[in-house]
Amino acid sequence: MKKGIVFGITALAMGFLFAADNSYADRDATPTEEAAIYGALKAQGCTVTDDIEVESVSGVYVVDEDEPRGLMPGIYKTEALCFDGEKYDIKMDHHLNILSKEED
Q: Which residues form the domain of 78?
């Protein structure tokens, strides 16, 4: 009985530890977000060459109901090959504005 209680408390504590640790982790973009990012970068003459990740804003993801594309607040990060033949690390906001474009 005592071992079960100790094991349960330990498991619960570990769950809280890992849950808190992952709250600020990047996540993969949803298919809707990917389509919007691909389209926006294609319009800029770039082709996405890597996965699109989303960095949360203050560790919280909130659905922006006023956003018609279904994009959530956050920083979208990917690599893209652009018309000049160079590969770039690109960061965009959820309004599809390029925040940074650094040569890879």
A: 26-103
